[in-house]
Amino acid sequence: MSTEDEEREVLFADQRSHQLTEEEELEAIQLRAILFPALTFYLAPPMLNFLKGMGLLWPNSKKLDSEVLLKIMIDNYKKNPYCFPTFMQNTEAILEEALLGRRAVAHCLLPLILQKGKHFLASWIAVATILNQPEEAEKLTKIYNHLCYGIPDFGGKVHDPYARPNFVDVILTPGKMSYTEYECALLVQVYLFKADNEILAPELRKYLISQQNGHIHANSVMDTQSYLWELIHTYRNKSQYEKKESALNILHDAKEARNLLFHTEIKNLLENHEKHFQSFIELSNSLGLTKAAARINATKSDLATLLRRY
Predict the structure, then answer these.
(1) Which domain of life is it from (predicted)?
(2) pLDDT per position as a tens digit, 172-206
(3) For the whole model, what pTM was predicted?
């Protein structure tokens, strides 16, 4: 086991020892729904653009994976503390905090989100500042001020609702995405995240708690990835189960959809979003979670209605 894997196990074990109340969980789930687009739509694009400019990423990459981007930034800072446009004495600590925030959001560590969600947002503002991205820092600051102080934006300024990665262009050329395609990809991420955050993760937890030794899931970490890995392991060991192969295929499809979402592979998400929603629906139905399946299907329909406007 690598040092990173060991650190992750320690983090997860600690988080599973903290049980939130139902009201606290709801607050953390709502905060997670704010943090996900803040990181994915505002901070990840300027990180990608900067690292491409340094020659540290494949020029045609369309993968806005903030985990990878932050790790590359940390590695490069360790090699050269002056590698970013703005120097801060505590840059490494800021980047580590930003990365922890990304992991808390991706793996639904609700106790950590409730405890430090606003701190994570502050670290993302600092990362935007380090990269000399004042517009994105301002957008993130508005979210922070609203969360902390309830301050609305009365500035009257009109901003793009998202940061633009350099693979998006008005003039569609080979290797580029159009604004319309990118905006549609953002919508796909919002609605697939909603399906995971509000429906699939809580329902998988309920299901697993109802199974043998289910008490180990009676905590406030609702990590879909961990749940799916456990179900895959369970079905692999069911040697006499007649629908084993079909069940495993459904689980692997759902795991792929989850991973594409949180590692922000936007081209795949856009082109195959119906398949990814369907994997969540089929998973829910296969476990007898028919109400969850219906809610996810309704979320899919809401997305389809919006996409038809483009």
Answers:
(1) Eukaryota
(2) 677 789 999 999 999 999 999 999 999 999 999 99
(3) 0.94
